[in-house]
Amino acid sequence: MLHFWVTMFELSRPERLVLVVLLAASLAGFSTRFVPILRRILAAKPDADFSLRPIGKRFWDFFWEVLLQAKVIRERPLPGLAHAFVFWGFCAFGLVTLNHIALGFGASLLGPHSFYVYLAGTFAVLVAISISGLFIRRFILRPKWLGELSYESGVIALLIFVLMATYLATFWTADSKSLWWAHTLALLIFLPLISHTKHLHLVLSPFSVFFTRGSFSKIPPLVVDNDGDDDFGLVTGKDLTQIVALQAYSCVECGRCTEHCPANNTGKILDPKKIALGVRDYLNDFGPASDQPLFGKHLSQEAAFQCTTCGACEYQCPVGVEHLPIIVGLRRGAVNTGKWDDTYGTKLFLALERNGNALGFSSAERDKFIAKEQFPIFDGSQEYCLWLGCMGAYDPQGREIIAAFAHVMRYLGTTFGVLSKEKCTGDPARRLGNDLVFQQLVEANLQTLAQSKAAKIVSICPHCVRTISTDYLEHAKDYGQAPPIEHHSEFLARHLDRLPQSAGENIVYHDPCYLGRYRNVYDQPRAVLARSGVVVDPPRARERSFCCGAGGGLAFLGEEKGERVSHNRARELAATGAGTVAAACPFCNTMFRDALAAVSPSPPKLLDVAQIVAASLPGKNEML
Ligand code: SF4
Ligand code: SF4
Fold first, then answer.
1. Given 173, 217, 266, 601, which is the most exposed site by the fewest CB atoms within 10 A?
2. Which fold has domain 497-623?
3. How far apart are CA 225 and CA 570, in angstroms?
4. Which residues contact 272 (CB under 8 A, 6 or more apart)?
5. Any idea what DSSP says for residue 236?
6. 354-492: which CATH topology?
């Protein structure tokens, strides 16, 4: 027989008084922490480039990531589902909680046998099972990504379990009043704990997911403020923006970002979770109006410069924390205030300024290569502008990739030309925080492109594609908009029907970060490779691909601390037993060139997608 408390008791006047006092104390406990946090977020610098548009995408992301919890489930299916049930249970218990408090004052929102009572009961069972599972995972299985044991998590889990158990017990027990009080006390203890612990994400994460920057890994522009003060990036608390502050307080400390971080996985001190928590701790200690440097007790400059900008952290985060704008912002701050003193970095910036390329060669070397390969200069009559990039123009292996791709274009009858005055896109300067050098390169390249009247660009380098298609937009109003650019694997995939098909050996494909996570291009290179062999994936593939270690300008910096990222990845690629490793980025190619030899006594062949296609063409077998 059902003994639901809705009809079973009435509180006395003294009991109601106790309830009012406890309720007020609980709300005060919540507010004493929540209000100052809200003030800190609102007092931070507004994000100058923030726009709600496209609003439809924001609502979709909110529906998908918050309401459906799809991202959490997709990335960690079992714990993700458990977490989702807890979340959905919380939503279902919103009405139950209102009804519960109303009952204390003699009112009722739900009938004792209403459908909703049983629906909430079903959720209570699911939440109780889920929270028990999450408790076992956190306190017994203890995956290292969750960090040190958090006793507050244990208390919260216990309270959630008590809330569910006391609700469910009313279906069988006649002593409704005791249960009502037990449920009430658990509720009133739980409320202030939300704002005082990482469970604040329950309140803030729907907002942090909705108010993201609008596109993956978007680096915000530097903006001169109303007083005419220059923006040097993230230097002090005054530079932290509202979005950064909101995200920092939304972090649920799940460690997903750390779990997938190539730097952290190979022994560097960089831990993306600590980037978010470092900003939070800084705001707690100093506030958003502080002149205290951000680097210090809470954030490390060394860690910021260990980031490959692979985007795995940002991709994984379930509450919308965008690590890259923070990390690049910190680098900007260090570079623009002269705090980053790195011999390799200085050499790179000088090479970019003086020679217009990251490898420091004279442009005459590029001219010689163009002449040797008999590449036509783009004159407006050709369909494509073939962007060489630093690697395609100067690096021996990059040159082989460009030559192979040009051969395929010729085979397909696609006309192309190269720019005589192309410079580095500025990608390494941009990601290392040197906006001055980046802007010089953008200006030169956009002017060259405008003069060339190129309508379409194709590139072998995902970093060039990303930088020209996205980062250049910031400067479009000053120097004109760059033409659309695509990666050569996209181009090749569109011409699939005209490429030869042959049965070949296993090819393991490495997803470059800037092609996969940044551009969402996963199927095209696989489809192209499938014309020449059997494509296999390494364990970490597609969205979960592990970086080669070159991004974020790190290809040009010195020795890495700990294990090399490229060795970690090369070991995984070699372990698949495939005869060929296929890459789709000249930086990945460079990194794996030595890494595969270092980790395997009989390393597989290493080729770019374009080289594999070129080798399949009539008379070109020597390219393999
Ligand atoms: S972008 Fe990549 S390397 Fe940088 S912190 Fe995130 S996961 Fe780590
Ligand atoms: S930043 Fe995101 S992924 Fe990383 S610990 Fe916080 S909530 Fe988890």
1. 601
2. Rossmann fold (3.40.50)
3. 46
4. 257, 258, 261, 264, 307, 313, 323, 327
5. B
6. Glutathione S-transferase Yfyf (Class Pi); Chain A, domain 2 (1.20.1050)
Structure tokens at 577: 């037993």
Preceding amide of 79 cis, omega within 30: no
Tell me if 316 CB under 6 Å of ligand 2: yes
User: Residue type for 397, please?
Assistant: Q
Cα 461 to averaged position of ligand 1 atoms, centre (Å): 20
Provide the 3-class DSSP secondary structure of residue 583: strand
Token pair, residue 475, equals 């400067």
Looking at this protein, which amino acid is placed at residue 310? C
C-alpha–C-alpha distance, residues 231 and 335, integer Å: 12
pLDDT score, position 622: 45
Q: Which two tokens stand for residue 582?
A: 């296929």
Question: What gap in Å lies between CA 4 and CA 532, rounded to an integer?
Answer: 67
CB of residue 321 inside a 6 A radius of ligand 2: yes
Q: What residues contact residue 136 under an 8 Å CB cut-off, 6+ apart?
A: none
State how far the Cα of 220 lies from the Cα of 329, in Å rounded to an integer.
Answer: 8
Is 457 within 8 Å of 483 (Cβ atoms)?
yes
Going by alpha carbons, the residue nearest to atom 8 of ligand 2 is: 254
Beta bridge partners of 583: 608
Phi, psi for 64 (deg, rounded to 5): -75, -50
Q: Phi and psi at residue 502, in whole multiples of 5°?
A: -145, 155
Q: What is the DSSP letter of 238?
A: G
Whole-model pTM? 0.93
Interval between CA 279 and ligand 2 midpoint (Å) = 13
pLDDT along the chain (624 residues), means of 10: 56 92 97 98 93 92 95 89 95 92 87 85 96 91 78 92 93 81 95 94 95 91 80 95 97 93 96 97 96 97 98 96 98 96 96 97 97 97 98 98 98 97 98 97 97 97 98 93 98 96 93 98 98 97 97 92 96 97 98 95 96 88 45
| DSSP classification of residue 486 | E
Q: Note the CATH architecture for domain 237-336.
A: Orthogonal Bundle (1.10)
Nearest to 357 by CA among 391, 385, 386, 332: 391
Position in ligand 2 atom list of the atom nearest CA 272: 4
Q: Given the structure tokens 């918050």, which residue do they identify?
A: 66
Q: For residue 489, give the nearest of 378, 418, 583, 566 by alpha carbon.
A: 583
